[in-house]
Amino acid sequence: MRLSDFIKVSSFVRYMLLLCSVLGLFLVGENVCHAETTVLDYKAYKVKSGEIIDHSRAVITPRDPRGYDINWSITNDEYTHSDRYVLDEGWRTLEWHIYLSDREIDYRGFREGKTLYLSGVFEGKRFEKEIKLRKDLPFLYNPKIGLKGFAASDQERIEFWGFRGDNLSEFLMKAEKQGVASVLIDGRSHDALKIYWAATGLGERFFNRVYYYRLSDGEFLTQDPTDGWTMHLMDARDQAAEVIIDAE
């Protein structure tokens, strides 16, 4: 598929989703879109001071007949980051659109076979790029969302392709399940699956994360602090929440 054809198809898909939403406003009670949208709000903050870094919102809409549309936005007083992903039924990334207002970044990408195709503006400069993947493994642009498929599976360990947004390059990652933990957020307890993921090889020393996925619905819940900050899922009662994790 040529990039121009991909952009035309993406525009058509967005148009159909918008039309579906508008029809839903008028046909109350009718099963128009055959999908339920999930909205998740997160906040990132400094662990010691509690100072808010930014807020994130994930809007997850099932696609017909299968897969998911994801809109992931990050905002604070200085910038807006807006990501859009098209995922397959296993939460693997098929297409993505990245917009960062503070860094003059606005580009699209898609996967076809073992190749990633990228095109748009990166740090104020137009570009086109192809990335050949060395192994035919899942591609997870945003592991917070992408690892949901692994969390729900019977697999204990996987390898996958991640992506460095700072230099537009792929990197080989691994993930493994590390049992169930009790996560206490602002006095509310959640049973969660603990997943460790990291770069493979020597890179593991420099890049590794621990995520927690709520057992009740499989949603990303929180992560272990990294460089003095963390983030967690909010609800209507959330204020300056305290996060306590006890492994079982």
Descriptors:
YmcC-like fold; 2 domains; mainly beta; globular; 248 residues; 51% strand; 14% helix; 2 helices
List the helices and strands and how they pair.
Blueprint: H1 3-26, E1 38-46, E2 52-62, E3 68-75, E4 80-87, E5 93-100, E6 105-112, E7 115-122, E8 125-132, H2 143-152, E9 157-164, E10 169-185, E11 188-199, E12 208-214, E13 220-223, E14 229-233, E15 243-247
Antiparallel strand pairs: 1-2, 1-14, 2-3, 3-4, 4-5, 5-6, 6-7, 7-8, 9-10, 10-11, 10-15, 11-12, 12-13
Summarize the structure.
By secondary structure, the chain is mainly beta. Helix content is about 15%, strand content about 50%. The chain has a nine-stranded antiparallel beta sheet, with no helix packed on it. Strands 9, 10, 11, 12, 13 and 15 form a six-stranded antiparallel beta sheet that branches.
Describe the structure.
It is a single chain. Helix content is 14%, strand content 51%. It has two domains: 33 residues; 151 residues, YmcC-like fold, CATH 2.40.360. It has 248 residues and is mainly beta. The strands form two sheets. It has a nine-stranded antiparallel sheet, with no helix packed on it. Strands 9, 10, 11, 12, 13 and 15 form a six-stranded antiparallel sheet that branches. The protein contains two helices and 15 strands.
